[in-house]
Amino acid sequence: MELAIAASASYIITNNVADFAHSELKHLGYEIITPEHILRLLRS
Questions:
Q1: pTM of this prediction?
Q2: How many domains does the chain have?
Q3: Please, which domain of life does this record's source organism belong to (predicted)?
């Protein structure tokens, strides 16, 4: 998480999306997505 914040990342990519459903990271503007979702975004 620290690296994502330091790098000003837009996404947190994880297979464990459920644990981040109410995370403070979402409130800070990070989008929590799965690896499959980021692949779909990159392919489109």
A1: 0.74
A2: 1
A3: Bacteria
